[in-house]
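Q: what sequence does this backbone want?
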């Protein structure tokens, strides 16, 4: 999930292939998920570790709420957040991750996906940036220097497509891999960035200014994805429910700010 949107393939091979024991543990965990008890399970007695794959902004914006909920309802459940990889791989199928959260742009055919929220990108700049004075037109927006968030290091995105339709182009000076990193760069420069609603609280904390982008950009469909082997797992069902509740609260708060 970069301007348009973990362990890489080699790192995953080191974790689950070259070392026999971790691979065996992963297989055992997947097998156990098929036979876990269903109704009547006391989540306060469950001891599990779940891995969530998603953009760093997700952990930054919602990690505290999920950890707090786990401490209250399922203290034996630990959560690991893994950043998105620069390559697409079947992390859910292979068991590297138990749940994916964010823009689900690539998934194995058997993976379950559920869209939870439709988001949009907004512009972000340092307080007092000259771009914020006067009417913001596509021309003025394009004339600014930009920084892009891209896990693959792409120097173009939907913004460039929208500008091209107007006969415009922009100067992208570089990319960073995460939204939090981009916000620190934007704070200390005259570069302009983009964030989704994930990053609004972080932008406010850093004293950044948020503005509407004067372009017709495609929406971001945010959701969750998981492998069907977890369907009957009550602990995983708790995790999905907790994430959905947290995102629902965030979605309602984001809608109220519009």
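A:
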């Amino acid at each position: 999930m970069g301007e348009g949107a973990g362990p890489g393939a080699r790192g995953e091979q080191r974790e689950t292939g070259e070392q026999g024991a971790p691979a065996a543990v992963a297989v055992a965990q997947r097998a156990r998920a098929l036979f876990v008890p269903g109704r009547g399970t006391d989540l306060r007695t469950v001891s599990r570790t779940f891995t969530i794959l998603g953009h760093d902004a997700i952990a930054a914006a919602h990690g505290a709420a999920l950890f707090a909920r786990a401490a209250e309802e399922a203290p034996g459940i630990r959560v690991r957040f893994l950043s998105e990889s620069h390559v697409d791989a079947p992390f859910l199928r292979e068991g590297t991750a138990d749940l994916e959260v964010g823009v689900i742009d690539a998934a194995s055919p058997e993976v379950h996906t559920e869209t939870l929220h439709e988001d949009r990108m907004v512009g972000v700049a340092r307080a007092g940036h000259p771009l914020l004075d006067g009417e913001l037109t596509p021309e003025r927006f394009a004339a600014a220097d930009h920084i892009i968030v891209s896990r693959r290091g792409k120097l173009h995105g939907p913004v460039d497509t929208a500008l091209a339709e107007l006969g415009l182009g922009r100067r992208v000076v570089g990319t960073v891999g995460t939204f939090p990193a981009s916000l620190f760069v934007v704070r200390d420069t005259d570069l302009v960035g983009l964030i989704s609603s994930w990053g609004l609280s972080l932008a406010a904390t850093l004293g950044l200014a948020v503005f509407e982008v004067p372009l017709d950009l495609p929406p971001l469909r945010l959701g969750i994805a998981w492998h069907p082997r977890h369907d009957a797992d009550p602990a995983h069902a708790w995790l999905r429910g907790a994430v959905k509740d947290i995102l629902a609260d965030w979605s309602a708060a984001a809608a109220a700010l519009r």
